[in-house]
Amino acid sequence: MRTNSRRVLSALAEHPDRGLYGLEIAEATGGVGTGGLLPGTTYPILIRLRRKGWITGRAVAGPDPAAPPRYYFRITAAGLTEASRVLQADAARRRHATAWSRRMPVLARVISALRVGGAGAR
User: Fold this and answer.
1) Is the pLDDT at 83 greater than 70, yes or no?
2) Residue 122 pLDDT grade (very low, low, confident, very high; cuts 50, 70, 90)
3) What are the residue ranges spanned by the domains of the chain?
4) Helix (H) or strand (E) holding 29
5) Check: CATH 1.10.530.10 for 3-120?
6) Is 71 strand, coil or helix?
7) pTM, whole model, 2 decimals?
8) Helix residue spans in the chain (DSSP H)
9) What is d(CA 118, CA 97) in angstroms, rounded to the nearest whole number?
10) Distance from CA of residue 29 to its chain's centroid?
11) Mean pLDDT, the chain, as a whole number?
12) Helices 77-120 and 3-13 sit at what angle, rounded to 10 degrees?
């Protein structure tokens, strides 16, 4: 699953008891103008997640009948399961990356020593 899809699914998973509309999802992913997802990115993701059965959506008319309805999206049980799986995989990747980053100073010293030793052997 791509990063932006994970961000949308995670935002909806944080609020399983209520639906979020597009601007709320953008704010939950970092906010519009601050690295959050824009509607042109968010809505295609929502369509894909809905097709997979991970979210549902419903239109709610506002007080102004001339205004378009606001669409609220809510995560399903299958979506919560997928979000949990994705978040666990992300946590495992972060643990793996952290373990490697701890080894990097040692590897850098070994590589440096090999370069010094290799240069002196010429």
Assistant:
1) yes
2) very low
3) 3-120
4) none
5) no
6) strand
7) 0.69
8) 3-13, 22-28, 39-51, 77-120
9) 29
10) 8
11) 83
12) 140
